[in-house]
Amino acid sequence: MTDSARRSTIYFDPQLHAALRIKAAHTNQTVSEIVNEAVRLSLAEDQEDLAAFEDRVAEPTISYEALLNDLRAHGKI
Asked: Do 56 and 31 meet the contact criterion of CB atoms below 8 Å apart?
């Protein structure tokens, strides 16, 4: 851990904690390293999702009712 690392208390489900400890032992990592990487991946995924929403902000919207009517009009349902 680095000098700038911060401590936090996290309460895991007992089975999840057991799985984390086993994974840590098998991968020669600490539970903290595994959790930090999982959080990094989750935050990166959130950032990608937000970018995708931003890219599509100018797209036209259609109501659910209009979508169903369009599908029916084109023989899709």
From this structure: no
